Amino acid sequence: MVGPLENLRIVELGHVIAGPLAASLLSDFGAKVVKVETPGRPDMMRDLGPVAIDGVGVWWKTLARNKQILGLDWKSEEGLKVLRKLVECSDVLVENFRPGVLERAGIGPEVLHGWNPDLVILRVSGYGQDGPMRDTPAFGRAAEAMSGLAHLTGFADGSPMHPGFPAADSTTGLMGALGLMIALYARERGVVRGQVVDLAVFEALLRLIDYHVPAATGAGIAPIRNGLRQPMDFAPGGMFRTRDGIWVTVSAGSAETARRLLRAVGGDSLADDPRFASLHSMSKHMTEVFDTLNAYITARDFSEVQVEFERHDAVAAPVLSVEQIIDHPQICHRGDIASVEGDPTHVVGPVPHFSITPGVLRWLGRPRGADTASVLEALGYDDVQIADLARTGCIETALEEERT
User: Fold this and answer.
1) How far is CA 16 from CA 13, 95, 151, 232, in A?
2) Is 300 exposed, middle or buried (CB count within 10 Å of its CB: 0-12, 13-18, 19+)?
3) Of 28, 73, 91, 169, which one is the catalytic site residue?
4) Is 314 exposed, middle or buried (0-12, 13-18, 19+ CB in 10 A)?
5) Listing from the earlier edge strand, what are the strands of the sheet with 32-37?
6) Quick one: 293 exposed, middle or buried, by C-beta within 10 A (0-12, 13-18, 19+)?
7) C-alpha torsion 379→382→387→389, nearest 10
8) Which pLDDT score, from 0 to 100, does residue 404 have?
9) Helices within 44-163 (DSSP H only)
10) Quick one: 237-241+247-318 is in which CATH superfamily?
11) Three-state DSSP class for 103?
């Protein structure tokens, strides 16, 4: 089946997570991504984290999925010529270097748009391409701190906390993919030709948290971390452990669902208490609500809690481990865990689900230089020229990688 983005061509100069994830998300739906790695200095995601039984880093397998791998020293004279040919026939260039790296290499946006006026350039950096912190080095955790996420996570009397995954980098990848599609749509409509999408790593989280800024400026309420409860405790909920040791999360998003929740744990007398007539009035008594939920759930096994909550159409969702996620019937039914033939490593499949043009996992991350020859051939290079480039160290091919 033809992917909806089959004709989209992306050059990826990115590394680690944020930029590569943006390209990876689009590759799931057919975009042809050429990932450029400098010979001798491969993307660190090849080695970071756990290694699969075949010796390949599992993070690399999924971040580089569906991508062609081109080993190219794009800063060299001959390498720059190859990069120009790539850019001239591409729609998108993704980079996540520090601001100024492309300019110092002589290929800032003005040069790239001179090569291809229709090129959309995604520039991911710690704090953006301008401003007083433009040149300040940053990692994902610094972005989580700047966005407010770390301040909102943890216990009230404890330290701020980071989540258990690279939230800033991952959400930046997601926002970067959205930014690219918006820019491409604007180009397709004839509004503009090529343009730059400038995305700071802290900005995606800042936008997705969404409520803390209007709460502070509009209502004069500064959300704070609140342990197992919501930062502002505006609705019943929290994290609780059942008698048989299963952690469950409980939540309600409206006055009606909140009263169903209260009826499940305290009967009609609690649910119909005038203090709980609205979420606004309920918020003034959230400690009592939390304590009631905690007393009810901790005194019962999960199966009993689940039955009672379902009877009242309330939500008590178990916290799943990765082992439970892999075997979960709903997740399996949706096809959200995917693999490729011959590789025991499973990854999360393409999301979202399309009714006619679904995403496809074609292959997992490939070896260094795996596609160098085929990419160069598509650009018009013959075997002799490719061999000459390999001898000078300008490119890295799969055979060279195997010998090393």
Assistant:
1) 10, 11, 25, 34
2) middle
3) 169
4) buried
5) 195-200, 120-125, 92-95, 9-12, 32-37, 67-72, 395-396
6) buried
7) -40
8) 40
9) 58-63, 77-88, 101-104, 109-115, 140-147, 149-152
10) formyl-coa transferase, domain 3 (3.30.1540.10)
11) helix
How many Cβ atoms from other residues are within 10 Å of residue 87's Cβ?
A: 22
Answer for the pair 49, 88: CB distance below 8 angstroms, yes or no.
no
How is the chain split into domains, by residue range? 9-209+333-403, 237-241+247-318
- The answer to whether 169 is a known catalytic residue is yes
What CATH architecture does domain 9-209+333-403 belong to? 3-Layer(aba) Sandwich (3.40)
The set of residues, in sequence order, having a beta carbon less than 8 Å from that of 116 and lying 6+ positions away, is: 87, 88, 90, 194
Burial, 89: exposed, middle or buried (Cβ in 10 Å; 0-12, 13-18, 19+)? exposed
Q: Which amino acid is at 86?
A: L
Give the residue among 97, 42, 139 at the shortest CA–CA distance from 365.
42
Residue type, 381: Y
Whether the Cβ atoms of residue 18 and residue 138 lie closer than 8 Å to each other? no
C-alpha count within 13 angstroms, C-beta hemisphere, residue 379: 22
pTM given for the model: 0.92
DSSP 8-state class, residue 156 = T
CA within 13 Å, CB half, 164: 2
Query: Which whole-number Å values give the CA distances from 268 to 304, 345, 353, 362, 399, in the listed order?
Result: 19, 50, 41, 54, 73
The segments of the chain whose pLDDT lies below 50 read 400-404
For residue 36, give both structure tokens.
Answer: 């450029």
Structure tokens at 188: 């397709």
Mean pLDDT of the chain: 93
Please tell me the distance from the alpha carbon of residue 75 to that of residue 87, in angstroms, as a whole number.
14
pLDDT of residue 399: 56
* Nearest alpha-carbon partner for 286 in 229, 247, 343, 333: 229
Mention every residue, 6+ apart, whose C-beta is less than 8 A from residue 79.
Answer: 72, 73, 394, 395
